[in-house]
Design a protein that fits this description.
Elements (H helix, E strand, L loop, with lengths): L1 H14 L4 H17 L6 E3 L15 E2 L2 H4 L15 E4 L8 E7 L3 E7 L6 E8 L7 E5 L2 E6 L3 E6 L6 E4 L3
Antiparallel strand pairs: 1-10, 2-4, 3-4, 4-5, 5-6, 7-8, 8-9, 9-10
Length: 168
């Protein structure tokens, strides 16, 4: 737990920098640390206490970098937000693609498994993206950055997708 807390403190100090370029570098640095860190925070199942939505009526749709910033004032927007990442999510040696998506009432991170093995919902919550959130690959993990509030680590290392919140 102590090692993970040090990684968190180090990363948050880098992310507190005001310039967008520093934040991007901070996310990269944090991703390399999170990829190696032992995860000790409480794992939650994906979509914990979030109702299922009928996908035939409200399918997941990938968001764009521009949509990731919709709720921010123009002065706080970056040129580009990371809304997709490539990684070996399930550890089978085949590259997978994670992307941010939304339906009519929820936000999600979807992982499209390589080798046509289908897709997995790796994160799901009520609400919509649009406050500068981003995702970044961290080894076999995905970091979801919720600026100014928190970060989540998405992993399937135990064979089942889980969500861990930094500082939890």
């Amino acid at each position: 737990m102590f090692k993970f807390a040090l990684v968190l403190a180090s990363a948050l100090s880098v992310l507190a920098a005001p310039a967008a370029a520093q934040v991007d570098g901070g996310l990269q640095k944090m991703a390399s640390q999170v990829a190696k860190a032992k995860l000790t925070s409480q794992p939650y199942p994906v979509g914990f206490n979030v109702p299922n939505v009928d996908q035939s009526k409200s399918p997941w749709v990938a968001i764009s970098s521009k949509q990731a910033a919709e709720g921010l004032p123009d002065s706080e927007r970056k040129r580009s937000y990371s809304v997709a990442a490539n990684l070996d999510w399930n550890g089978d040696g085949i590259l997978d693609q994670a992307y941010m998506a939304r339906n009519t009432s929820q936000q999600a991170v979807i992982v499209r498994l390589g080798g046509n093995k289908g897709q997995v919902v790796a994160f799901k919550a009520e609400g919509q993206w649009g406050s500068g959130e981003e995702i970044i690959a961290a080894g076999r993990r995905i970091i979801v950055n919720f600026p100014e509030t928190s970060m989540a680590i998405l992993t399937a290392e135990g064979g089942k997708p889980t969500v861990r919140y930094l500082g939890d």
